[in-house]
Amino acid sequence: MKKIFSYPKSLKPAETHYCAGCGHGIIHRIIAEVIDEMGLRENTVAVAPVGCAVVAYDYFNFDMTESAHGRAPAVATGIRRTLPDRLVFTYQGDGDLAAIGTAEIIHAANRGEKISVIFVNNAVYGMTNGQMAPTTLLSQKTETTPLGRDAERDGYPLKITEMLASLPGVKFLARKSTHSPQEIAKAKQAIRDAFKIQRAGLGFSMVEILSACPTCWGLSPKESLDWIKNRMVPYYPLGRIKEPESELAET
After folding, report:
1. Residue 251 above 80 pLDDT?
2. CATH code for 24-250?
């Protein structure tokens, strides 16, 4: 019988603490698969900041470290410059990257740091019970916007990936999703390409992944997947937003 499944060596056999339907487990899995398939497990260092994935080191079976809230790009910069042969990536949520960490992500990208960023966007602060995040959609109800986010009062949801696209140090940007098997496969390919960009020494790369938070959204896991497709994707369109096509094909 043909073997079609094996547990990634880059994942520990640990029981998850994530809520039912949370997208972090899916994203952990595809990252681990990519690292295994690229043969980089013994040469990888990841940085996890504050957020639901603060204990990502409990799941990933390679070197990891913590950073202060929002400061993962700064820590990753120091690691990559000190150990230039390593694959270095950050794993950050929208409350971390797009709020307290806005300066860090913009300046790391602008410097063209040779790191990769996995940016998990679930449009809410998940770890602290569902307050409005910079990525919360207009009219979306949260613990701090019970009547829905209002543009005049709260501003507009930030499109961080599009903001970074104008910076010359940024070589690869993509936005993918976890709402279907097909989109998960595309997210995995985007992660692979981001890591290829880094390994080729071309510059900064980031993959934004739209992810479900059923607990804070007040929806079932199935309803949450539909909410990503019907509510998030229209505002945060999926695709490969910036890439050096000829250089990527050679890596």
Report:
1. no
2. 3.40.50.970
In the predicted model, what is the mean pLDDT of residues 49-78? 94
Q: What local confidence, expressed as pLDDT, does residue 2 receive?
A: 81
Summarize pLDDT for 21-42 with one digit per residue, the tens.
999 999 999 999 999 999 999 9
**Sequence ranges of the domains in the chain:** 24-250
Separation of alpha carbons 45 and 80, rounded Å: 9
Strand order in the sheet with 239-242: 63-66, 44-48, 87-93, 116-121, 204-210, 170-177, 239-242
Question: Using the 8-state DSSP alphabet, how is residue 180 labeled?
Answer: S
CB 121 within 8 A of CB 237: no
Nearest to 99 by CA among 121, 76, 67, 118: 121
Handedness of CA 211, 51, 240, 250 (dihedral sign): negative
Measured distance CA(191)–CA(149) in Å, rounded = 31
Task: Report yes or no: 49 and 92 within 8 Å, Cβ to Cβ.
Answer: yes
CB 173 within 8 A of CB 241: yes
Q: Quickly count: other Cβ atoms within 10 Å of residue 61's Cβ.
A: 18
Q: How far apart are the first and last CA of the chain?
A: 34
pLDDT for the residue 129: 86
Q: Return the pLDDT at 246.
A: 62
Instruction: Report d(CA 53, CA 9) in Å as an integer.
Output: 19
Decide: pTM greater than 0.85. yes
